[in-house]
Design goal:
- There is one protein chain.
- With 186 residues, the chain is mainly alpha-helical.
- It has a domain of 75 residues.
- Helices cover 78% and strands 3% of the residues.
- It contains two helices and two strands.
- It has a two-stranded antiparallel sheet.
- The longest helix has 142 residues.
- The radius of gyration is 64 Å and the shape is rod-shaped.
- The protein starts with 16 loop residues before the first strand and ends with a helix.
């Protein structure tokens, strides 16, 4: 990539251009539009040489700074590349850990589902047994109720029979007394 420095930054007139590519004769080559500058201004050439030297030194300083910056940038790029690799390795390890964790969680969920299904089966079985027991208790209660009703009917019947018996007994007693009176009278 070709790099050029804006000469106006260093106080040079915009008519002057500097080619920053190194040449075999001097580090900086001057180009001027007007070839007859020395003829027009007799001291201008020495002043231009001084300026050119100062600007050449400044350019060299800038080049060394650019070179240092390029080295720093390369170091940073290398460091970033290393950090990218480390980050990639860490993310792969993390992805593997997450996959193992997901697998473990899936297994636990399946185990839990199996246990829930087993418990649901036991609860349903217990409900069925409880329903059967409740039916038996209800039947027993119904039988007891029927027995109590029959017992009550029998007690009423017995009470009626006792009343009749008491009536017969008193009639029999009356008949005895009547017979014993008749025997005395006779």
């Amino acid at each position: 990539m070709k790099r050029e420095i804006d000469r106006s930054l260093f106080g040079a007139s915009p008519d002057w251009q500097t080619d920053l590519r190194p040449s075999s004769s001097s580090p900086v080559r001057k180009v001027h539009r007007d070839e007859h500058l020395e003829d027009l201004f007799p001291g201008a050439q020495s002043e231009m040489n001084i300026r050119t030297e100062v600007e050449g030194r400044q350019v060299e300083k800038l080049r060394s700074k650019v070179d240092r910056m390029e080295v720093t940038i390369e170091k940073m790029a290398t460091r970033l590349e290393e950090l990218g690799k480390v980050s990639h390795l860490k993310s792969e390890r993390l992805a593997q850990a997450i996959a193992r964790s997901d697998e473990h969680m899936t297994k636990m969920a399946q185990d839990l589902s199996a246990k829930v299904a087993q418990l649901t089966g036991k609860v349903n079985e217990r409900r069925l047994v409880e329903t059967k027991v409740q039916e038996m208790v209800d039947r027993h209660n119904q039988i007891v109720h029927t027995f109590e009703q029959r017992m009550s009917q029998l007690q009423k019947l017995l009470s009626e029979k006792e009343l009749h018996l008491a009536g017969y007994h008193s009639a029999l007693e009356e008949a005895r007394q009547t017979i014993s009176r008749l025997k005395r009278i006779n």
